């Protein structure tokens, strides 16, 4: 696969970007901790705060990273900007228009996986990056870089009411496929977690569809 930029240019760009947006990453780490706490105290206000935080991260990634920086070395970043801004808008609009939507830690596999992805994105992802030789500031940073932000978003959304969360997971799933390629082509091993995240999303989606089909079959037999 031929990329329009080199590995050195990719990491150098992160150095410029992180220096420009610092200390925004610290704010997003604080807000991520708040979101994690609110998942255990579900309510309408908590839902809007969590959704607003996710939307802010996606807006910063779309406009700040893709449009203002990544576009300089990759023309595809123009499309990425549009997709990320769309996701930011959806994160605001869909939860606001669905009063029953909640983020809540439930005793099920979906919530369990989601709660594991949250600390991975905020703590283990950067540690893995440091072990791989990616030092500050030339490294993807949670909240302001697309890949760890996507993992965190998927983790949070997996605790959400599926009827809405399922739609909100489409764009993160697509980026997991795109961004996951960095693990192979750009030497970012922590992004293998994106590919694993995508596989989990597919499994949950298939399981959900299978469950719906089974329920419809049972209902039809009952009639």
Polypeptide structure, described:
The longest helix is centred in the last third of the chain and has 31 residues, at 192-222. The chain has one domain (7-222). The chain has ten helices and no strands. The protein has helices at 7-21, 24-39, 44-67, 77-97, 109-131, 146-157, 162-168, 170-179, 182-185, 192-222. 73% of the residues lie in helices and 0% in strands. It has 223 residues and is mostly helical.
List the helices and strands and how they pair.
Blueprint: H1 7-21, H2 24-39, H3 44-67, H4 77-97, H5 109-131, H6 146-157, H7 162-168, H8 170-179, H9 182-185, H10 192-222
Order of SSEs:
HHHHHHHHHH
Specify the structural class: mainly alpha
What fraction, in percent, of the residue positions are helical?
A: over 70%
Largest sheet: none
Number of helices: 10
Number of domains: 1
Total DSSP E strands: 0
The global form is: globular
What amount of the residues lies in strands?
under 5%
Poorly predicted regions = 211-223
Short recap of the structure:
The chain contains ten helices and no strands. It is mostly helical and 223 residues long.
List keywords for this structure.
single chain; 223 residues; mainly alpha; 10 helices; 0% strand; disordered C terminus
